[in-house]
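Supplementary notes (optional reading)

For those who missed the lab, this is the record we used. Protein: PUM-HD domain-containing protein. Length: 321 residues.
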Amino acid sequence: LKEVEGRIYSIAKDQYGCRFLQRRFDEGVAEDLQKIFEEIIDHIVDLMTDPFGNYLVQKLLEVCTEDQRLEILRVVCSGDELISISLNMHGTRAVQKLIETLKSPEQVSMITSSLEQGIVILIKDLNGNHVVQRCLQRLGNEENQFIFDAAAQHCVEVGTHRHGCCVLQRCVDFSKGVQKERLVGEIAANALVLSQDQYGNYVVQYILDEAPWIAPEVMAQLEGHHAHLAMQKFSSNVVEKCLKQGADDKRARIIHELTKSAFLGQLLQDPFANYVIQCALTVTKGALHASLVEAIRPHLPALRSSPYGKRILCRTNLKKA
């Protein structure tokens, strides 16, 4: 190590130099650790986002003293440095390691206060979303309150995003009590918009699975729109989910809405809505099923010549009609 004193920062950014320094950490000599630390602490942000340097920082975080860890936190938590590092493809790994190795409430508070400044940006970012998910996995629910608050407040913006929708589902998983009630309630309140989105529809379906008590609120938001939703690629999946999981009275309301629609003939032959009708035929029985069959019966001639309509004919006694 003496041979590279004064040049430790530069060799930390080299593939072989980085490995050499990591081996010094493995040997566990406190003097070596302190010497490396002193030479890189002022460059820690740059190293965290470096293709090789980030590995050295991750290794350092596993073996450093608490005073050293606190010094690292002071540097990376100044200004918006932590947000920038988290958005970087290499930096995100170093920040995740930093979160994994936090030891005290003070350290956690420094991290969460810094991340809070750009939490929505992080949630929607290819790299940053992994930092948010690591917080959910490693920190306590009270410490993650800032994430749950942001997810609830911005649930449409987040839920209609490729990465955000995944984070939103993880927030549903990790939230508890009042946190979960508020978050799920906000998603349900925006179910009509979310259901029609290529990503948001998965979020609505997810809360129907993971928080079935919210189903009546979701269905209330969709009421009056089921025919329109059934003919869309994404929202048709939500309507099917509601038919499968709704209570008998809610299911009956959906089916009544579909059968009384002026677009019933179109629904039966629609590339998406036909699946909704098939689902309705599958999940109903008795008088409700009979009323659905009777509503479909006048459209049988048209269904026989329709590629999607033929699927309806294969259900129940319609094939023989």
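If you only remember one thing from this example: Residues 258 and 264 are 7 Å apart (CA to CA).
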